[in-house]
Amino acid sequence: MKPTEVLASKKFEKQLKKIPNYIKEAAAVWIASVEEVGIREVRKLKGYHDEPLKGDRKGQRSIRLSKAYRLIYEEDEQKNLVVITILEVNKHEY
Predict the structure, then answer these.
(1) Which residues of the chain have pLDDT under 50?
(2) Spatial contact of 21 and 66, defined as CB atoms under 8 Å apart
(3) In this structure, are residues 88 and 15 in contact, taking their beta carbons and an 8 Å threshold?
(4) pTM, 2 dp
(5) CATH among 3.50.50.60, 3.30.2310.20, 3.40.120.10, 3.40.50.2300 for 4-91
(6) What pLDDT sits at residue 94?
(7) 65: helix, coil or strand?
(8) Which residue from 1, 23, 22, 4 is spatially nearest to 69, judged by alpha carbons?
(9) CB-based contact 19:58 (threshold 8 Å)
(10) What is the pLDDT of residue 16?
(11) Vertex 21, ends 19 and 71: CA angle to 5°?
């Protein structure tokens, strides 16, 4: 298993100031899990509904932090490290 590093975009850091605390906590739990056991193992957890995105967001993935909020990220696998960059967290339009 390759070590995983999670980075936050400036947009995500700015959005963290505006979202509810329970969403911040859910994001922190997901980040800690990814750093501890790796993205491949966390993807197996059904509760996150980790899925690839389509269209303009091809190459990006999303997870659900709640029914309303999702986190968008990109994955970059390097020689000995998987880098996850969190792009944004938003209220999902259904």
Answers:
(1) none
(2) no
(3) yes
(4) 0.91
(5) 3.30.2310.20
(6) 58
(7) coil
(8) 23
(9) no
(10) 93
(11) 50
